[in-house]
Structures are given as structure tokens and as C-alpha cells.
Amino acid sequence: MTLLSIDNLSKSFGGLMAVNEVSFDVEAGSIVGLIGPNGAGKTTVFNLITGNYQPNTGTVLFDGQNLVGLPTHTIVEKGIARTFQTIRLFQNMSVLENVLAGGHCRMHSGSLAAMLRTPAQRREEKEAMRQSMAELDFVGLAHEWQNKAKNLSYGNQRLLEIARALATQPKLIVLDEPAGGMNDQETHDLIRLIRLIQDRGITVLLIEHDMGLVMRVCSSLVVLEHGAKIASGTPAEIQANPRVIEAYLGVDSE
Amino acid sequence: MKSSTIYYLAFAAAMAVCPLFLNAYWTDVFNNVGLYAILALSLNVILGHCGLFHMGHAAFYAIGAYTAAIINTSYGIPILWVMPLAGILAGIFAMIVARPIIHLRGDYLLIVTIGIVEIVRIALINNVFDITGGANGIFGISRPSVFGYKISKPDQFFYLIWGFAAVTIFLLLRLEHSRFGRALMYIKEDEVAAGGSGINVAHHKLVAFIIGAVWAGMCGTIYASKMTIIAPESFSFAESVVLFTIVILGGSGSIPGVILGSFLLVGLPEVFRGLAEYRMLVFGAAMVLMMIFRNQGLLPPGPKNYNVADLLQAGGGK
Hints:
The complex is a heterodimer of chains A (about 250) and B (about 325). Chain A has about 250 residues and is an alpha/beta fold.
């Protein structure tokens, strides 16, 4: 079953075609990698999916619904959570509070319920704490819950972003360079974590430059160059594709 | 009991007995401190928690005060009964004016909100709808009465104002420690990340404005009944600046900080009255120094307590 279907998506910034008629599908339950050289438009595709940018043309179908034009928070509610390439945590807030932000869209109590502290509001708060601690435990940061986000190591900040995204209870999680700034051991643990996310029935779409990680974890790949899709297929197919090798290594000028 | 609860109870007890030791003049100073504290706490929801640079809070205060004054003087309805309506009207006004400007950031929002408070003041001076009494304002507003007990002396007002302040503090503390309060703090920290985490940024900003305005409107009712006369000049841009300064100086987003800020900014100039016109100079210099050496405010918000220690054990905390 196709969970996310991107069709003919284009986005230009002034005269620059950042994304040019890109189409690809993401199957439910799979781990799909979006790769390509720097400046190929990968993050722009992510920003189009999550509503941070609006496309010039094309559609983003998620669960059969077109997401184009919807605000970011509605897209999160529909089940797409993301992490950012440049880490965007709430730096001065605690680790727990960061994860609670993800739980926000699954809660309902408003300002009046908070002032009156209704039984439903208290139950919901308690449940949110429990769920957030469970997500922290899942990524291995439960013991850091009181720490400020900015005091975590770079690798742990990336994990915290993943925990916050998971707390939104997504169907699809979109990871933008999750291994950026991680050492080998951390990357190894991350691969295990991504597989565990898949085991929970969550589909994963990721951008990554670490080819070792991409080849090991992804079931299929989409390759972008200069904003256009140049190839897609299994990791083995991509590795053998001359067009992809050319994009990454350049052609021999003979 | 949590240590913060003990501080609040100690403060409440100290405030409850202090009219016994104060003369009428100082009681009235404390009453003013109380009014400013309530107003600054309501502004704190918008400016302190949500990080919206709103320098037109006197506009909402004015709407509340004028609503109460007009209804009270025209229809003779007891002033405290009008209080909820004054709050609601100020809230509706906030919703109408804030909706189109809610996406503005930082200094842009600041300029527009200054415009709002000036428009309201000038509209009041020009006797808009023929009900605001122009530059002279409205007089003959009746004193409040609680259960048939008429409130007119400073120490009686003291308990009315600080009673309302206590309710305000209690409710706003609850608001701060909730899903809604956290949402405002996320927005203040990083709007893009907040939206990306599923928080409806525009909606929460707007509700923050409305809550702040409702409270300022209710506070306006008390002010109108305390003064019995209100005029446009009481709701000037300068008043908005004082409120803004209280929040920033006391500690943006910190309820104890804002209360302390009100005492310092409204109460302290009275202490130094002996210095005559030099007191404002000393005061200004002190503020400049503070902003250089302690720009997060006197009592910045501390880390919040969450009761999750038991979850940590159950979750196999490493």
C-alpha cells in the first residue's frame, strides 16, 4: 500500500528550480532514502511534504489526501512528523518538555480546562507525561529528562528530535540527516533505532549522506540531482546505476 | 508541600496583614501596585510566555474600564456585575485587532500594537459613538459592593484588588503548567519547531492575546470603580510602556518576577519621593544598569517541576 505519493512536485526560488517535477511513492512500512549531492533539493522536498514550503505545481498525497496548502501543524496531526537538518530543539527547555511538545497535537485540553484543572485535563497531562517518558526511554534518553536540551551532546540532540517526532504518534517520520554529526558508534545505534521505529509500524523517509547507513537501512532509494529525480530503486540497483555514479563522482572527461 | 507553594502562601499572609500597619496613603500605593501587578500578569501571558512584543496593553485595559463605566453610569448596574462583560468585550476587541497582525514578528508587531493603543486613546478623546465623554471622560462611576458591603476606603480596596490579584496568580500559575502554557513557551523559543511539532502557532498566539485582554478588561473595571472617574489620558501609550517594562524588568515569563517588578516600578518611586524630581533620574539609571548586568530580569523563570520520577523507575531508567 502506498502511504505517501509525490506527484510532479516543483518548487522554484526566483529563477532557481530547487525541485523540478519530482515524483515518487513511499510504501507503508518501508524505509525510503532520499539521496543526492549537496544542493540537489532533498531538504526542499521535505519542506514541501511537511508544509514549510508551498509547491508551485504538483501534489503530495498522504493516505489518499492532498496535503498541499495545509498548514504545518495540520500535516503533523494527519500523521507526518519530521526532524530538522539543523537541529531545532527548544534549546532552553528541558528534555522532557521538548518531547511533550510532540504530544501536544494528540491532546485536547485548552486554556479554560487548564485554569479549572478539570479531571479530564489532569488525566490527559498524566498520560502525556507517561507517553513522553516512554518515547525518551525508546531513544535511550529517559535519564536525561531534567537536562536542558542545549546541554545534550550533538548526537543526543538528534535522538531527542526523533523522540519529539515520535511523540506526535506519526504514521510517517521524515528524518533530515539523522546521522549528521554522529560518531560511528552513535550511527550504529541510530540504524538499530530506525529499524525499531519501522517495527512499530511507522514508515520512515530519510535524507542521509552517510552511504553506509543508507545502504544498510533503506529498502528503496530515490536519487535527486539539480532538483530532478535521476533514479530510484533498491540500494543494489542504485549502486550499479551509471547515472548515479556520474552524479556523485563526475564523468571521465576522455 | 513544594517550596514555591510555601513562598506564595507566605507572600499571601504578609499581604493579608499589611494594611494593619500602613496608613491610608501607603495602602493606596499598594493598591496601585496591585492594579499594575494584575495588568502586568495579564501582559505576561502575551509578552512573557508567548514572546509577543505587545506594547499596547493599555488599550484592552481602557476597553474594560470604559465598558464598565458606561454600563454602570447609564444603567446603574452594580460595577462588579459588569466585570465579566467588560472582560469579554476587551477579549472580543483583542480578537478582532490581533487576528490580522498575529503573524507579525518582533518589532513589527510592537509598532502595530503601539498604533492600536493610540487609536483607542484618540477614539476615546473624540467621544466615539457619543458614549465615552470625550477628553473629560466619564465620572460618577459607583463604588463596588461585595455582598451589600460597600467598598470605598483604601484598605477595603486593598482586599478587593489583592484578592483579585490572588485569583489571577492562582489561575495563571495553573495555565503556565499546562498544555496551553507549554505551547506558548514553545512558540517563544522557536516558532518553526513549534509548528513542526504540531502546535497551531497562530491559534495559540491569538488565544494568548485574548486571555491577556480579558484580564486587563476585568482589571479596568476595578480601576474605574476605584477612581470613580476615568479619562482617556489614563490609558496612554506611556502606561503600556510601564507595563511592558514591569514584565521585562521583573523577568519575562516569570509570575513572581512580574509581581516583584510591579512593586519596584510602581512602589519604589514613592519611597524616593524625598528626592523630588531626582528620583526618576536615579530610577532610570538603576534600570539602565540592570538591563546591562541582568538582562533576563530580576527573577527569571526557573525550571518547571514534573512529577515523573516514578515513571523513570517503571521505564527501566538507565
